[in-house]
Design a protein that fits this description.
By secondary structure, this protein is an alpha/beta fold. The protein contains 14 helices and 13 strands. The chain has a seven-stranded parallel sheet, sandwiched between helices. The protein has a six-stranded parallel sheet with strand order 10-9-8-11-12-13, with helices on both faces. Helix 3 (66-80) packs across helix 4, helix 4 crosses helix 5 (129-145) and helix 7 packs across helix 12.
Length: 376
């Protein structure tokens, strides 16, 4: 089976991590010829990991021009004549759709990995609503004009998000993302600090500023200063706002911003809890990594995270943006060791039953085989 994976980049995001893990699985198969095609380089991310694994990767090196990118992808598909072209993330999906007007070789699978048109985005002060609406219309228009797409949705919530926009009938499958089991051992700690960890790019969607509001609320209202937070993940549009707030409120002793790191799994097992107050998500791969590390979780009660958690009793939930409720959940978990153990055990059970990487990779490859046999 000849496969091309088309992706925006091999950056540090959850979608990129998921596809790299699946690509490794494909690379080890004798019946697969794999090539990854990237629309841009990323200094921070997974390029070295992919290269070291021996996966053939091609990068677009031209200008940031839509027509040039369409021509680039079209030529690769024409030359390689793949059985499957699998695109991931919005730009790659768009360019592959437009390239189908010129080259129609191979079966097309597109992964839908987020809920980008959530109305929660109206709360983002950095978002241009006009550009948002235009992007939504272009996405809808190109999907409806391209009839030969099979869609992979990473959650039920993502599927329902796109259902009114795209021509989705029986040409889809819902397969969760997966992660490897975390085999690290927790380091011993002799202090009384309560360690929270968050991972994700520093953007509005991830709600990291709300964690800071919550920590400052506990500091000012309850004189609690032994709550420590690590934020892992590359810089984004909200980095400056986050750093300014830490400085203004004198939180540098409690909050550390580490950026992209290579030891996330070890840092997870050394934390006491994972905090994930997102405004919108496709699945939340970081949450799966926390599950694998047996961490109790605090997260927002958006539908997709409730789907991933699987039970109202499986985590502590609050409304996105409600930093006082978030603070009370932090305090509740800090003060109740029994609850932490209960939620940590639930996280791991949920991970093993639904998000084990080997199981997910097998389901994804079965989807490839099924798509090859069907008329999309």
């Amino acid at each position: 089976m000849k496969i091309i994976i088309l992706i925006n980049s091999l950056g540090a995001g959850g979608a990129e991590r998921s596809m790299v893990e699946f690509a490794k699985f494909l690379q080890l198969r004798d019946d697969v010829n794999l090539q990854i095609v990237c629309l841009k380089h990323k200094k921070i991310g997974l390029e070295d990991e992919v290269n070291n694994f021996g996966i053939h990767t091609v990068y677009y090196e031209g200008s940031n021009n839509l027509r040039s990118k369409i021509k680039f992808v079209s030529q690769i598909v024409k030359d390689e004549n793949p059985d499957i072209i699998h695109s991931v993330l919005a730009e790659s999906n768009l360019i592959l759709r437009l390239s189908r007007f010129f080259v129609s070789k191979g079966k097309v699978i597109q992964s839908l990995v987020n809920t980008p048109y959530s109305l929660e985005r109206k709360k983002d002060s950095e978002l241009s609503w006009q550009k948002f609406q235009l992007a939504k219309k272009v996405d809808e228009w190109t999907a409806r004009l391209t009839s030969d797409i099979f869609y992979h949705a990473i959650t039920k919530e993502v599927y329902h998000h796109y259902l009114p926009l795209f021509k989705i009938n029986d040409n889809y499958r819902i397969i969760y993302r997966g992660r490897k089991e975390n085999t690290n051992v927790k380091s011993s700690s002799k202090n009384n600090d309560f360690h929270l960890l968050n991972t994700g790019r520093q953007e509005f969607a991830k709600g990291q500023i709300d964690i800071l509001y919550a920590i400052n609320f506990l500091k000012e209202e309850y004189d609690i200063t032994n709550i420590k937070l690590q934020i892992l993940g590359r810089e984004g549009q909200y980095t400056k706002k986050i750093l300014n707030y830490i400085s203004t409120k004198n939180l540098s002793d409690q909050v550390k911003i580490h950026g992209f790191v290579n030891d996330v799994e070890k840092r997870l097992v050394d934390a006491d809890a994972f905090i994930f107050p997102s405004y919108y998500e496709g699945l939340g791969g970081a949450l799966l990594e926390a599950f694998s590390a047996k961490l109790p979780c605090i997260c927002s009660n958006i539908p997709v995270l409730k789907e991933v958690v699987g039970s109202d009793q499986g985590a502590l939930f609050s409304q996105p943006g409600d930093y006082q409720a978030l603070a009370m959940n932090i305090l509740k978990l800090r003060n109740d060791e029994t609850l932490r153990e209960k939620l940590g055990n639930y996280s791991y059970k949920r991970f093993k039953e639904n998000f084990d990487l080997n199981t997910i990779n097998a389901e994804m490859f079965q989807m490839y085989n099924d798509v090859l046999k069907m008329e999309v």
